[in-house]
Every structure is written in structure tokens, then in C-alpha cells.
Amino acid sequence: MKLIMDLFLTFVKIGLFTFGGGYAMISMVENSCVERKKWITHDEMMAAVTIAESTPGPIAINAATFVGFRTAGMAGAIAATIGVVLPSFIIIYIISMFLDNFMELTIIANAFKGIKLAVGLLILQAGLNMARHIKRNALTYSIMAFGFASMLLIDIFSLKFSSIALMLMAAAVSLAAFFIKGGDGK
Amino acid sequence: MIYLDLLIGFFKVGCFSFGGAYGAIPLIRDIVLAYGWLTDEELTYMIAVSESTPGSIMVNIATYVGSAKAGLPGSLLATFAVVLPAFLIILLLTAVLKKTMNNKYVQALLDGLKPCIIGIILAVGIYMVIEHCAANGAADIRALLISAILGALMLLLPKLTGKKLSPIMLILISAVMGAVVYSI
Q1: Average pLDDT estimate for B42-56
Q2: Which residue has the higher pLDDT, B92 or A76?
């Protein structure tokens, strides 16, 4: 029980100080869970980050679940995951009650017009960074072009077609190609 | 039934959100617009708010939308739904299927999923930049100016200083520029 509580509090702290999310928190987990508490080894930590990168969900959640489970089983996984989410939940819940009035100020509204531009560029940058790390072959390039062209059309013509459907189609095509090639991967 | 919608909508976000904070935004945008939970404007506000508060953007947006649409129960439910897929997948991978990530079928699936997601992210990024710079067919000179400066900062600063400009810094700079340029 003491361990569960310790996990919970450690991840509350991590959740409270991970601004902007993602990779900044890896060093915090490394510092508290590997170096100080010795719950997991550095290698396990790196393995967890690799897994986090190819599975959906924020890295913070993935890391919390992983460390929690390794340290104290299911109860640990639950305690750590709730812990890492709790601080931002409370903060955003409070903010959600005040946001509307805040936006009525002209200068704030203008600032957000600028932010909107930054967000578009950040999304573009995220896409370009990811594109650098995929396998390079005809199939992945075609699928990428397919996803790009379809999504652009969906956006331009406001089509009612979900991006999830596109992803599922791409996954199905890739799996089919894998079997056609004989199922040996290359 | 708003509770069920929140649960399903954010579960979907949680299942398909690869690629970190900004990589996940196209999917979040798709879903919150489809359900009519947020406008493009409100989503931008939330991204900015998320950047200046702790926690991941995806979880923050779930909490906010849940709260705005259905109060405390809604925000608990949406947050739970968005976290659940990541929680279950990691649990499965560490507890039962240690070898699954190296499994060739899983790899074949991911090999199709990832390029498609990247294509979608690039399309949404380009669409958003163009849409904001040319609202209603007419070019917005102010937006073009701000975008050009931001783009130049993102490209040149890492080369000059060797350090990447963090998203939060970029958003701060863009906020100041927006407040100044649009108020003139």
C-alpha cells in the first residue's frame, strides 16, 4: 500500500510539471523512477519510450502505466496513471469554467489569431519530423500520398469522411501487401 | 446521448493518436468538429491553454470538452476515455504480449498506419496554414507576415543557435505578434 501511494504521489508530481507534454517528461521519469526510486532500469525506461512511440496515447500516460505495472502490478498501473492525469485534470477543469469571459477581450482574441498560425506550423513540423523516421519504400510512399491527398480533399470540401477510416484502409492495404509478398516481411 | 458520444469520441482519439502532441491534433480536430463540440477557433484556444498548463494536449482537450458539454461527470468520462486505450495497450504489451511489438503482422499493420497518419498530419498542417493566411479567398496580409516570420524562426533558429525552438516559445511569440499586428 505504501508503494502504491508512493507511485501515485511520484506521478502526481511528474504530471504537475510536464508542460507541453511529451519528451520533456521522459527526463523527469528518468530522474525520479530510474535514478532516485530505482523502480525500473535505464534500459527498461528506453524500451518503454520506444514502445510509447509506436503505440497511441501520450508518452506520459504510457510511461506511468508501464512503471506502475512493473513496480506494483495492476494496482500500481492504475495508481500511477491516475496520478499523472490528476493535476492537469484539476487545472483544466477549473480553467474550463472561466475561459469564455477571458476570450472576450480584443487583445486576447488578437493574440489567439497569432497562435492559430503557430499551431498550423507546429502540426506541419510534427508531420515532417515523423516522415523522417518511416521505412522508405514504394508502399509507404504511396500510402503517405494517399493519406495526404484524401485528407486535403476532405478538408477542402468539408467531406463527412473520418480520418480514422483512412487509417484503417491504409492498415488493411499494408497487411494485404504483406500477405501477397508471402508474409516474410521484406 | 452526450455521455456515450464523449466516451466513444475520445476513446477513438485515444486509440489513433500517434505522433505526440501536434501529431494528434488533426485527429482531435476531426472528431471535435464532427461532433460539433468545438469550433476551429475554440480548438486553437484550447491548444494554447494546454501548452501553458501541465499535461498532454489530448488529455487536456478531453477534460475541457467533457466539462464544457456535460459538467464534471462529462469531463471525468472524456478524460477516462482518452486515457483508456494507451493504458490498456501498455498493460497488454508489458504483461501478456511482450513480443507483440516485434510480431510481423503488427509491424505490417503499423507500416501501413504510420505513413497514412503522417500524410493526414501534413495535409491538415498545410490546410490550416493556407486557410488562416487566405481566409475566404482573399489573402490576409497580416497572417502571411506572421506566418513567414514564425516559419523563418522555426527553420533558422535551430541552425543559428543549435537549439530547437520549443512549441511553448513559438506560441508565446505568435501570441505577442498576433496581439501587436492585429491591433494596428
Answers
A1: 82
A2: A76
